[in-house]
Amino acid sequence: MKKILFLLFTLGVTLSARAEDLAVSGAWARPTVEGQGASGVFMTIRSTSGARVVAVHSSVAAVAQVHEMVMNGPVMTMHALSALELPPQKSVVLSPGGMHIMLQDLKRQLRLGEHFQVVLDVIGADSQSRQHYIEVEVRNSAPDGP
Fold first, then answer.
1. Mean pLDDT, to the nearest integer, of 54-75?
2. Assessment of whether the complete model's pTM goes beyond 0.70
3. Domain boundaries along the sequence of the chain
């Protein structure tokens, strides 16, 4: 019985450490006006051992995707990424004008000061799939920005 309890305790600690492998900070989204169909979500994501974000969901939008904006000469283009790579021990910044989460077909207006959830489907370095629930604040600018 002691061996089983020890094994369960050890497994619990391991699962807890894996769940803490991903750290998200500064999650925010821009407010919208009535009838606006899209908004961006921004944050900083850091993975201890490396991971990939393979899908994004939110109850406030019919479609949520990780997008990248790039300059092609004088023209800025945007496209969805099939996955967002999170290299080990490096922060990946999702920001206006760069990579971001695009919420499309919004189901309602995003009002200044409210909070909503975004779910990241992540595959860790151990090939295990996990969901990470992120609380997003609707703001005019980044929490630590101007």
1. 93
2. yes
3. 2-138
